[in-house]
Task: structure prediction
Amino acid sequence: MPFDLKNVGATYQRLMDNVFHGMIGRSVEVYVDDIVVMSNSFEQHIQDLQEVFQALRRYQIRLNSDKCAFGVEGGKFLGFILTHQGIKANPEKCKVITEMRRHTVGGNCNCEVSEGPIQYLYLFVSG
Result:
């Protein structure tokens, strides 16, 4: 499916939602063409993968073997870090926020600002 057409991303996401209906949120997370199968044990993971492969086969969807990774205990997915402990923010993506200096408008600010970059974002970026 060519992705330069209008609404193709939303259409493809609806297709993936239909293909993996019943699995999303339980053992599968899907965002457009990224699929993650999560399980609590190796045995459960094999069953979940079988269910995913059956759905892919039913809808004649093929995977690119160069982009597949199996048996991984964690990794990056959509800018987050996935581990057996759960989903965490990617420190590389948060670096800009955590290293942000505190600024004032024109060197003089008549508003009360708490310390920290989040307050800066709230007061000055959002308007």
User: Anything to note?
Assistant: The longest strand covers residues 28-31. The helical segments are 8-19, 42-58, 91-98, 117-125. The chain has a mean pLDDT of 77. The radius of gyration is 21 Å.
